[in-house]
Input
Amino acid sequence: MHSPLLATLPNNAAILIAAISGRSLAAAARRGGFRPLVADLFNDADTLALADRAVKLSGSLQAGIDEDRIVETLSELAGGDEPVAVVFGSGFERKPEMIDAISKEFSVSGNSAKTIRLVKDPVSLSRLCSELKIPHPDIRFDIPENPQEWLTKLTGGAGGSHVKPANGDASGPERYFQRFISGKNLSALFLADRHKAHIVGFSRQWSSRSKNTPFRYGGAVRLQRYDGQKAAWIEDRLTALTRRTGLAGLCSADFIEDDCGLHLIEINPRPGATLDIFDSEETPLIREHLRAAMGCNLSIPAYRGSAASAIAYTAKAISAFPQVAWPAMTADHQLSGTALRAGDPVCTVFATANSAAAAMKAVKSRVKELAVHWREDFR
Output
C-alpha cells in the first residue's frame, strides 16, 4: 500500500516506527518534523518522551520481534492517524516476511523483503560480491578444519552479539562461518535510490567485549575525512549492489580494511546504530530516507568536527535498576526499578569533538564515569 501523503512529506505527519530499539528513529523523526508512533522492545523513558504514542512489541533481544502480532500491533498504534509510512530499524533482517505482511497494510519506506533477502542471505551476498568484483570473506556451512581462522554468525543477525569465534559447537541451522580478516573496520553510511548509492559519511566502530559476546557492538565515531580514492571506490561498488538488489533508503555497509584493500563484510539494509552521529538539524536524514525510497533528489548533510556514540552495558544482573540523575548527552535510559540481566544495555552516551580521536576518547571516558551508578551488584 502507498500513502498519498508520502509524495508530499507534510510537516507534523505521523510516521510509524518499528524496531528492536526505536529511540534514535523517533528522535530523527522529530528532527524531520514528523510525529513518531513507535513500536519497539524497550519503551524506554526517552522513547516515551519522543513518541506521540508508543507500544511495546512482544519478543526479546535473543529471539527477535514476535512476527505473529506485528501487523495488528502497528494497526492499533496507528489508530485514527494516516501514517506517512512505516520506517523499520533493526530486527527485521532475520524475518523479512514481516515486511511482506506490513506492506499489505501500510506504505513501507525502505527496503522490500526481497531486497533484504538478497543482501542478508550469506550465500546471496557472497555470490553478488563475486559477480561484482567486490572483495568479500569466504563463507561456508560445514565446520572448518582450522576454526581459529573463522567466525560464526547468525544469518540476519545485527549488533555484533551474534558473532563468535568458530568452534565445534558453533554451527546450526541459522548460522554460517565467515573467514576472519584482521584489519581496521570501516562503516559507510549511504542513501540508496534503487539506482545509485550516495555516500553520507564514514565511521569506525569498536566492540564492547564480554565473556560470551567478544564482538558485541560498543560504539562508533564519525570520521571527519576519509581517503577520496577509496571513498569513490566504495560508492561505485555500493552503486553496483544497489542496482542489482534495489536497495532503497538509508543503509550502511561494513568493511574491513587491510594491506590488500577493502573487504565488504555485510550490508545493513535500514537505518542503524550510527544514525545519531550522522543526523542533522539542517538536513534531517529521516526525510532523506523517505525521499530516497521515493527516488527523489537527495541532499547530503555537511559536517563539522566529529561525533561519537557508545552503549553502556551492565556487567552484572540488577534486580531493580537504581534511580540515576542522567546527564546531558545520554539517551536510551533504563527506567529505575527495571530488572536487568548481565550484559543488558543501560544507556547510550554521546560526545562531540574537533577530531575523531578526541570524540572517541571522550565518549569512552563518559561511559566509565557513568558506570559508577550501576557498577555495584544491586541484586
